[in-house]
């Protein structure tokens, strides 16, 4: 992941915005690249990484850290990595997996026979025409609109005939993406569809919509960089080491906003370190102390995402609650899916999956906060959960409309197609004012 972030940020600073955005998109999402894209990686990008490796020659230990800083007009990029990490990125860029071997390894994961049932259940939430688009990406490995660039695909000079080295292990050649990886994951589906519609993409071509949305977002990002004074710092370290690393490599010690992604979210809320500290506490302790105080900036927040919290709470409430609530949820789903029209097994599975959309997520998350002892965590780490959120929506994946409202059916289908089903909860944290 760090290697891909390094490569993508270097691309954003070295190439013209439109060209950079296209290369960034395919390095990020596509298993194969064009000869010109490979040439870009092997040229300037590799040159910067090789410079970092060369600077490590004087270091005696492989785990010693070496920082490299490059300035591109108003933009500064600092990369602080251990010797072996610099060497690993260079090895990735120098790897030359054969197309046939790379495709075989990729398809062993993305089209694995052992995952057929899981894939079918995922496809079951999509409309039939959408399934065709999603499955095509699994087959080709290249994120493009449906039917887009077919002639270029077959052309030796412009086709996508070279494996993307950042998606394969440079030592074993293994495919590194997860078997249920989806290009549209983590993007707002409504925004994706809007972006695609502006380019005339058919509604069912999910990957086409995703392509134009990501391409537009990356192009805007690259253009914005040219007008900003911005300093990117990249590390590959656990969060508890970040404060010390920042002190050594930058002059910045506190921040207005910190996004911890799902770092504080864990499969088991009872999981603790050897000294009894939870992962949430470690996140708040290590990243929270880098957040500006309310006196310095009353709007400074630490953002965390909880994807598993409501599932933990549901299991803790027991089977009786789940059965009673499921009956209520089924009645709500029946307003969008007519049980009498289709009693097939796939319809039944889709119907039951759709019940997730109507869970009482607010109650479940409150239960989760009680389970982890929120007040004690806040007091111990000097942090406080902010309500309401001011930066990001608390429940961005939840259905907003009621069945009687205009557009409710379309929103219901969009929520199902996103695979999120409503359970992700963003929490913003602020530092407590100490007396």
Tell me briefly what this model is.
The chain has helices spanning 2-14, 17-29, 35-55, 83-94, 99-110, 116-123, 128-140, 150-154, 189-198, 206-225, 242-249, 279-288, 309-317, 319-333, 345-354, 361-372, 374-381, 408-418, and strands spanning 32-33, 65-72, 75-82, 162-163, 230-235, 257-259, 301-306, 383-386, 425-431.
What does this 3D model show about the protein?
- A hairpin with a 2-residue loop joins strand 2 and strand 3 (75-82).
- Strands 6-7-9-8 form a four-stranded mixed beta sheet, covered by helices on one side. A three-stranded mixed beta sheet has the order 2-3-5, sandwiched between helices.
- With 435 residues, it is an alpha/beta fold.
- The protein has two domains: 2-225, no CATH class; 254-431, no CATH class.
- It is built from 18 helices and nine strands.
- The protein starts with a helix and ends with a strand.
